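Troubleshooting log. The previous structure file for this entry was overwritten by mistake, so regenerating from the original sequence record. Sequence copied from the archived sheet and checked twice against the printout by T.R.
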Amino acid sequence: MIDKQQERMERYLRLNIFPTTFCPGCGCGSILNAFIHALDDLDIPPEEVVTVTGIGCSSWIPSPYFKGDVLHTTHGRSIAFATGVKIVKPDMRVVVFGGDGDLIGIGGNHLIHAARRNIDLTVFLVNNFVYGMTGGQVSPTTPYNIQTTTTPYGNVENPFSIAEVIASSGASYVARWTTYHIFQLVRAMKEALQKKGFSFIEIISQCPMNYGRAVKLRSGPKLLKLFREKSINIKEVENLTEEETRDKFIVGTLVNRDKEEFTERLRDAIRRAEER
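Regenerated output below.
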């Protein structure tokens, strides 16, 4: 087992620059580990993958550690860059990593329309409920009444349910898991990587330094325990009342459907235009 893990890490990671710069207890390292497990299980070599990131803690998951090509782009614009890569290099697997502030806050417009167009991208949104890298400011997923550095008297806004938003926008595959559900997350990543069309996983992840400070849970294990206690599988939701699911994490696969993909339609339109 140790030899297999070492082989996997050497295949996909630049081990000479380890350890990572993630804060103690951060979930981003677990997500990186899950990602390379998924690639290795599917036998996808790093040279066939392009990862694209914006700005934020989760953007450092592939950059600079992943051996494949990595585009570290501007805040909120990773989906736009990734779309360009997919159009020009349709045979590459294009994977986007971003946080809740990066992808649904600053880049929400790009995210929703990429799902609507059903572009063949795999998007992993790491939701730690705050703008973690810049000091713990309120984000579109911060729960109601939580105190952050920019909401010292409590957040007065209602948070996005991101996975549901993307599912209703037209994505082919949508799931939500937490960093506590690591084996389920690896399985979902494998499903997302193999799905044609827009694939999206919301990964609820611990941030002890900023969100942990806001909710007085300043360690990774304490936040993982919270994820375990508050998670409900989506298969059980239909038998529960709204009150019973309030403030809970609904985990599982929300959508898995087959649809026409955007870049194939685009190439077909170009071909028809050239024939004329």
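The chain has a mean pLDDT of 95. Archived copy saved in two places this time.
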